[in-house]
């Protein structure tokens, strides 16, 4: 039996912006189906630039990106963007329709799916994030944490291969962090989580990749990387005071 291709394959990707700023200098990354991986690094490390290559928003540099074996190029962009779902840091950037149900239905409707299929996807996606029963509510009537879960549902309704989350724990209270973590750990998708929240990375992602200066500087088990004080110090990553990753169950 032929092995499944990696969910994400990044090979020697380098990219410079039009103003000449070189953001990536030859990044290699492989994420296999079902993995949950945290992408760590200081501000300006190139994390956002890398993520924008995964669904073809940025192209034209050196190297190759493939999603489940499909190369990211002009002719494949529609399918790539279905396979790679990006959840923005601010859910209000993602929710713009009058009701939750219409927001979650927006992507499937754009695929031209029959309304029966759209409705089924909306119901399933909202159930996956623990938000069943709110389809008729306006998004702005929900709490911030609830809106973030609905934003995840808008991506899940597209049946993505890969879920990319940008700072998913930011601005959440402790209950919201816990509720989102329970949702994310139960999803049957490959996950790449961009975060500065190192304890959240440890909680959700067995593997972490550290990006700094446009290159991958570390890739390994999250617990081992977070226990390496020298590594964290060199790349301006900080654990909360008193947090010991080796003592977390």
UniProtKB/TrEMBL annotation:
<dbReference type="GO" id="GO:0042626">
    <property type="term" value="F:ATPase-coupled transmembrane transporter activity"/>
</dbReference>
<keyword id="KW-1003">Cell membrane</keyword>
<dbReference type="InterPro" id="IPR017871">
    <property type="entry name" value="ABC_transporter-like_CS"/>
</dbReference>
<keyword id="KW-0067">ATP-binding</keyword>
<keyword id="KW-0472">Membrane</keyword>
<dbReference type="GO" id="GO:0006824">
    <property type="term" value="P:cobalt ion transport"/>
</dbReference>
<keyword id="KW-0813">Transport</keyword>
<feature type="domain" description="ABC transporter">
    <location>
        <begin position="8"/>
        <end position="238"/>
    </location>
</feature>
<protein>
    <recommendedName>
        <fullName>ABC transporter ATP-binding protein</fullName>
    </recommendedName>
</protein>
<dbReference type="Pfam" id="PF00005">
    <property type="entry name" value="ABC_tran"/>
</dbReference>
<dbReference type="InterPro" id="IPR003439">
    <property type="entry name" value="ABC_transporter-like_ATP-bd"/>
</dbReference>
<dbReference type="GO" id="GO:0016887">
    <property type="term" value="F:ATP hydrolysis activity"/>
</dbReference>
<comment type="function">
    <text>Probably part of an ABC transporter complex. Responsible for energy coupling to the transport system.</text>
</comment>
<dbReference type="GO" id="GO:0005524">
    <property type="term" value="F:ATP binding"/>
</dbReference>
<comment type="similarity">
    <text>Belongs to the ABC transporter superfamily.</text>
</comment>
<dbReference type="InterPro" id="IPR050095">
    <property type="entry name" value="ECF_ABC_transporter_ATP-bd"/>
</dbReference>
<keyword id="KW-1278">Translocase</keyword>
<dbReference type="InterPro" id="IPR003593">
    <property type="entry name" value="AAA+_ATPase"/>
</dbReference>
<dbReference type="InterPro" id="IPR027417">
    <property type="entry name" value="P-loop_NTPase"/>
</dbReference>
<dbReference type="InterPro" id="IPR015856">
    <property type="entry name" value="ABC_transpr_CbiO/EcfA_su"/>
</dbReference>
<dbReference type="InterPro" id="IPR005876">
    <property type="entry name" value="Co_trans_ATP-bd"/>
</dbReference>
<keyword id="KW-0547">Nucleotide-binding</keyword>
<comment type="function">
    <text>Part of an ABC transporter complex. Responsible for energy coupling to the transport system.</text>
</comment>
<dbReference type="GO" id="GO:0043190">
    <property type="term" value="C:ATP-binding cassette (ABC) transporter complex"/>
</dbReference>
């Amino acid at each position: 039996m032929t092995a499944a291709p990696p969910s994400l394959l990044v090979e020697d990707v380098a990219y410079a912006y039009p103003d000449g700023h070189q953001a990536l200098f030859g990044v290699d990354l492989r994420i296999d189906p079902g993995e949950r991986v945290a992408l760590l690094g200081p501000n300006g490390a190139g994390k956002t630039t890398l993520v924008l290559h995964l669904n073809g928003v940025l192209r034209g540099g050196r190297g190759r990106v493939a999603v489940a074996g499909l190369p990211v190029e002009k002719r494949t962009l529609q399918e790539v963007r279905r396979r790679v779902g990006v959840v923005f840091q601010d859910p209000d950037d993602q929710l713009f329709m009058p009701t939750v149900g219409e927001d979650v239905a927006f992507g499937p409707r754009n695929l031209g799916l029959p309304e029966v299929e759209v409705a089924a996807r909306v119901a399933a996606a909202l159930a996956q994030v623990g938000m069943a029963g709110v389809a008729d509510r306006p998004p702005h009537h929900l709490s911030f944490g609830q809106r973030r879960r609905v934003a995840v549902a808008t991506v899940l309704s597209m049946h993505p291969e890969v879920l990319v989350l940008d700072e998913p724990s930011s601005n959440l209270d402790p209950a919201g962090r816990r509720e989102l973590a329970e949702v994310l750990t139960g999803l049957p998708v490959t996950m790449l989580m961009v975060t500065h929240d190192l304890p959240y990375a440890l909680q959700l992602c067995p593997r972490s990749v550290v990006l700094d200066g446009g290159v991958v500087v570390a890739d390994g088990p999250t617990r081992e990387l977070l226990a390496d004080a020298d590594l964290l110090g060199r790349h301006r990553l900080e654990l909360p005071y008193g947090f010991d990753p080796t003592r977390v169950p």
